[in-house]
Design goal:
246 residues; alpha+beta; Nuclear Transport Factor 2, Chain: A; 5-stranded antiparallel β-sheet; 11 strands; globular; disordered N terminus
Length: 246
């Protein structure tokens, strides 16, 4: 799964997470009747973020280390659903490849949101979500809009929030995967944002060269239809940037 830019006016995501190259298109009608356990909220795994800085040939070097502690129950649940996908939908499904493509999609979409280039998201985001985004983006202050952008190298941690399998009333089959991202951003945000929530900060370097970064989170949901004969297209059907894009 990979993202590439085809010229300055067009962005396309080539998704190979489940079956060959694919591009994102608007999703079908809302699905119903989920299979398996009820949907769980995105997990909030405990993690320790540590930064180190030291002299190098071109100045101070920076590193952020993430120590992941994941709930065993949540991990087993997502792996069970991935097994179902491989058994009943696509034998070549790869969690690693899907995750790489999801990170690339998140980076591209978040930058386009930050730049207010929503017209380039038609093939990436569902029409319903895109309409809501247009209304919210227009009301954001510049600092919050800048904080939406995530460079691919600034994504510190990625995990699956939820995996679901659907059948709608017409018997069509769908898979939905919610991905959660933690990323660093240097936007000029206040220490507290609306709602009284704190923004976690990381400072690199010494007093003369220090650089402050905010550790932010985002949740993006990807959906694909698996009905026989359907195109292997993925669509982003949910976008959340807590404390920024409310």
């Amino acid at each position: 799964m990979a993202l590439r830019c085809a010229g300055p006016g067009r962005v396309r995501w080539l998704a190979r997470a489940l079956a060959g190259p694919a591009r994102l298109l608007p999703p079908p009608a809302a699905a119903s009747a989920p299979l398996g356990p009820a949907r769980l909220p995105p997990p909030r795994p405990s993690a320790r973020f540590a930064s180190t800085a030291g002299p190098g040939p071109e100045g101070p070097q920076r590193r952020v280390v993430v120590v992941r502690i994941t709930s065993p129950i949540a991990w087993l649940r997502t792996r069970f659903y991935y097994l179902l996908i491989r058994l009943y939908f696509d034998q070549e499904f790869s969690v690693e490849e899907f995750t790489r493509g999801a990170k690339q999609a998140f980076s591209v979409v978040s930058k386009l949101l930050s730049q207010r280039k929503l017209d380039l998201l038609d093939e990436l985001v569902s029409p319903e979500v895109l309409q809501v985004l247009k209304e919210k983006i227009s009301l954001l202050p510049d600092s919050h809009r800048d904080a939406l952008a995530a460079d691919i190298d600034s994504i510190m941690y990625t995990t699956e929030g939820d995996v679901r399998i659907y059948y709608d009333d017409d018997g069509r089959k769908f898979v939905s995967i919610l991905m959660c991202f933690w990323y660093l951003n240097g936007a000029n945000l206040p220490d507290e944002v609306p709602g009284g929530a704190k923004v976690f900060q990381i400072v690199f370097g010494d007093e003369s060269t220090k650089e402050k970064k905010h550790l932010l989170t985002a949740n993006y949901e990807f959906q694909r239809e698996f009905t026989e004969g359907a195109k292997p297209d993925w669509t982003i059907t949910r976008i959340e940037h807590p404390r920024l894009l409310e």
